[in-house]
Design brief:
The complex is a heterodimer of chains A (about 260) and B (about 325). In chain A, about 60% of the residues lie in helices and about 0% in strands. The longest helix of chain A has 29 residues. Chain B has about 325 residues and is mainly alpha-helical. Chain B has a two-stranded antiparallel ribbon with strand order 1-2. Chain B starts with 18 loop residues before the first helix and ends with a helix. The chains are: A mainly alpha (about 260), B mainly alpha (about 325).
Chain lengths: ~260, ~325
């Protein structure tokens, strides 16, 4: 039985909140895939913990998006009943876990950005977003520290870990540019003091990242060609598989309470 | 839980030890004193506890797999977060228990290696598959319920670190049990399809859960020493009966049928269950359960795939130590 996708009225604010919610959910989901399979029990704990923080952020953001939209949607409908073309997350967060280095490099790129972003968002004129940001910033600071420490260990560990960490950086670098892109609707919210201009964070993000990567004896790639599309629903092939798993229960048994 | 079915006391080698110390040790046990890591203890006590605690730890870690199987498919975000947190708790229990075992002189690495080599056991229950979402509710309700039944007496175990670990673990297990029951309640109040899913899960898990308490007392040869040492305070059958008596009314409240048509309530109010198929239990313990091979393969894969990460962490720590000593020498 096919279950119809919900329709979302993507006003600039709804779309803006959904994008952040989708980032958090998809990355949280990816990290949750590690649970029970991590390189050591401490990392089963840590990656689950980070996943829980992100899923928690996603829930608050979805609930707020639903409230702003003012229709019949809620956190679960937004998460479980939109298809690939309706998802608005960054391409970076949907990339597969790969090996532990790829997971941690992805986290370093994202958390380094999220930490600055949420900190700036604490000053948003939108009280709900400012409150979500205050909580998320504390969490992101921990996520960033965890990822930074691991990248340093891996980069400056063994020959093999160095090679894997560098390969992960090279593989994922092209997905970092999308974090700083802004469209017209978002520009309007930035001007209104609701949203954060990510471009204003880029210098600090790059400087902090360079410090970590340098200490890890790794290098950031020179190429500056960046992939984009996630924000408007043009995703990699990976997202569809993630969603088919995430949404399988709601798609198989429509309209029930669980 | 998860060890009762498996622990066997070591052969009694107290004769080799100082008889006076042994007598003093037993007197402390009889006086309900806690034995602490630095206290003298018989070698067989140490060995029995190391085995029991490490089996318990392995069970927590292997037990992450059947439930972890549903983290990415949980039906709502609330359920997804709760399940992930629950599986994370189990990992925490594993870590906590390995630490308790280490107080007896074993290292986590050697204990884990023994498990991965197939030389150490874990609870038979985790060798069954989780096929539907109702299995997640059923595991919380019944498997964690059975675990609590076994672990509450272990909070008074004579070995201090184990007893203290159990106090904390029991609190979390009891939360998990309520969470599992709440999943079942939601299913049973839902559509016919959901209720059928709940009944099917109960049908599949009921008998394996009863087996978690271990062989019947008549066939259990090794309980004497553990009982004398106050590691074990109730027999397998006593605990199993307590569990059944507590569970039957819960199933009735859900409107589910226990898959045991011969079950009757006796004059004392106890629910008498039918004969358990111990052949199945022995087969699962022997490695022939539906998921034994998958579980071991998953744990070995995680261990092997993670080797380079652990090596990197060790290499980095060594380098950092060298740099610090070099700086201190300047």
């Amino acid at each position: 039985m096919a279950v119809a996708n919900i329709q979302v009225s993507e006003t600039p604010l709804v779309l803006y909140v959904l994008r952040r919610a989708d980032d958090a959910l998809i990355l949280g989901h990816r990290l949750s895939e590690w649970c029970g399979h991590a390189p050591m029990l401490e990392e089963d704990m840590a990656l689950s913990n980070i996943a829980l923080d992100l899923i928690g952020q996603a829930r608050e953001l979805y609930s707020y998006a639903a409230k702003v939209e003012g229709k019949d949607n809620d956190e679960d409908k937004l998460a479980y009943l939109r298809d690939v073309r309706q998802y608005r997350n960054l391409l970076l967060v949907e990339q597969p876990n790969g090996d532990f280095a790829q997971t941690l490099v992805r986290q370093l790129f994202y958390s380094g950005f999220a930490d600055l972003y949420w900190r700036a968002m604490m000053g948003s004129g939108d009280a709900t977003l400012a409150a979500i940001a205050a909580k998320s910033e504390k969490e992101s600071a921990y996520h960033l520290r965890h990822a930074s420490e691991w990248i340093i260990r891996l980069g400056d560990g063994t020959e093999e870990s160095h090679r894997r960490a560098q390969a992960a950086i090279d593989q994922l670098w092209a997905f970092t540019g999308e974090m700083f892109a802004v469209d017209d609707g978002e520009r309007h919210l930035i001007d209104a003091g609701v949203a954060i201009d990510p471009a204003s964070l880029r210098g600090r993000w790059f400087a902090a990242l360079s410090d970590v990567v340098g200490e890890a004896t790794l290098e950031l790639p020179q190429n500056d060609w960046m992939q984009q599309g996630g924000r408007s629903g043009r995703h990699s092939e990976h997202l569809g598989h993630l969603l088919s798993e995430l949404q399988s229960m709601q798609r198989t048994f429509p309209g029930l309470t669980w | 839980m998860y060890t009762q079915a498996l622990n066997t006391a070591e052969s009694d080698d107290r004769a080799l030890e100082d008889a006076a110390k042994a007598a003093q040790f037993q007197a402390r046990i009889d006086a309900e004193e806690r034995i602490e890591p630095n206290d003298w203890m018989p070698a067989a006590y140490r060995k029995t506890l190391t085995r029991q605690i490490s089996q318990h730890a392995h069970s927590e870690i292997v037990g992450m797999l059947p439930e972890g199987n549903w983290i990415t498919r949980a039906p709502t975000l609330r359920r997804k977060a709760a399940l992930l947190a629950k599986v994370q708790d189990e990992c925490g229990h594993g870590l906590y228990l390995y630490a308790a075992a280490e107080t007896l002189g074993a290292s986590r690495e050697e204990l884990v290696d023994a498990m991965l080599a197939g030389k150490a056991k874990y609870s038979s229950i985790f060798n069954y598959p989780t096929l539907t979402w109702a299995d997640i509710g059923t595991i919380g309700w019944l498997v964690d319920g059975a675990a609590i039944m076994n672990q509450i007496p272990l909070c008074r175990c004579s070995y201090g670190p184990y007893a203290r670990a159990m106090i904390r673990v029991c609190k979390e297990e009891s939360f998990h049990q309520r969470q599992g029951y709440e999943i079942m309640l939601t299913l049973c109040r839902g559509s016919d399809e959901q209720k059928a899913m709940a009944q099917d899960a109960l049908n599949r898990w009921w008998w394996p859960v009863l087996m978690m308490f271990g062989p019947p007392d008549a066939a259990s040869q090794h309980s004497d020493t553990s009982t004398r040492w106050k590691i074990k305070r109730f027999s397998n059958d006593e605990l199993r009966q307590k569990f059944v008596d507590a569970t039957v009314p819960q199933a009735q409240y859900l409107g589910l049928s226990i898959p045991d048509p011969g079950m009757i309530q006796d004059a004392d109010g106890h629910w008498r269950y039918s004969q358990i198929d111990w052949t199945e239990f022995k087969q699962v313990l022997a490695g022939n359960g539906p998921c034994n091979r998958d579980r071991m393969a998953a744990r070995r894969k995680a261990h092997e795939d993670g080797a380079w990460v652990r090596e990197a962490a060790a290499a980095y720590a060594a380098k950092r130590g060298q740099r610090q000593s070099a700086q201190a020498a300047e």
